[in-house]
């Protein structure tokens, strides 16, 4: 289980979302089960929640970051009283990572647009690149004398 319900309220209050504790745990379990393969997680995700891949990623990364922040706070607090020594969680890559769902949607849109380009455009671009190489070669030879 991800976190206890009484910690969930504290962690979720800053995230301002419509996610419930049960749904967050459901997502977390799928992330563990499918090793963060969000395409597979999205495919297996229950329809009753109506979440996009970007929603799933955003929730996972925001909760992970928040849990690491709380864990880091607790570890620092325990250090003050010399309870025990543990590694600081600020070195965790997910501690500094912020998932940008809007950027991801734009990136996917442009990728799809690129993939769906007609073959004529691809051929035209290929010919232009070949011509550019030829011009650069001539220019290089001219100045190399």
Supply the key terms.
about 140 residues; mainly alpha; Arc Repressor Mutant, subunit A; 7 helices
Question: Quaternary status of these chains?
Answer: single chain
Low-confidence blocks of residues: none
Q: Biggest sheet, in brief?
A: none
Run of helices and strands:
HHHHHHH
Count, helices: 7
What does the model show?
This protein is an all-alpha fold and 145 residues long. It folds into 2 domains: 1-99, Arc Repressor Mutant, subunit A; 100-145. The protein has 7 helices and no strands. The chain has helices spanning 5-12, 21-33, 38-44, 53-80, 93-96, 101-115, 119-144. It is elongated and about 75 Å long. The mean pLDDT is 82.
Produce the secondary structure layout.
Layout: H1 5-12, H2 21-33, H3 38-44, H4 53-80, H5 93-96, H6 101-115, H7 119-144
Helix pairs in contact: 4-6
Concise structural overview:
This protein has seven helices and no strands. The chain has 145 residues and is an all-alpha fold.
């Amino acid at each position: 289980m991800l976190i206890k319900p009484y910690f969930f309220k504290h962690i979720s209050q800053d995230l301002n979302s419509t996610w419930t504790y049960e749904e967050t745990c459901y997502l977390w379990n799928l992330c563990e089960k499918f090793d963060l393969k969000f395409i597979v997680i999205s495919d297996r995700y229950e329809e009753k929640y109506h979440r996009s891949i970007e929603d799933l990623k955003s929730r996972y990364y925001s909760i992970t970051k928040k849990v690491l922040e709380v864990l880091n706070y607790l570890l620092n607090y325990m250090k003050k009283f010399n309870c025990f020594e543990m590694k600081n969680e600020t070195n965790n890559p997910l501690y500094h990572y912020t998932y940008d769902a809007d950027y991801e949607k734009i990136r996917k849109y442009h990728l799809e647009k690129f993939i769906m380009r007609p073959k004529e455009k691809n051929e035209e671009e290929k010919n232009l690149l070949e011509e550019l190489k030829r011009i650069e070669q001539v220019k290089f030879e001219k100045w190399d004398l």
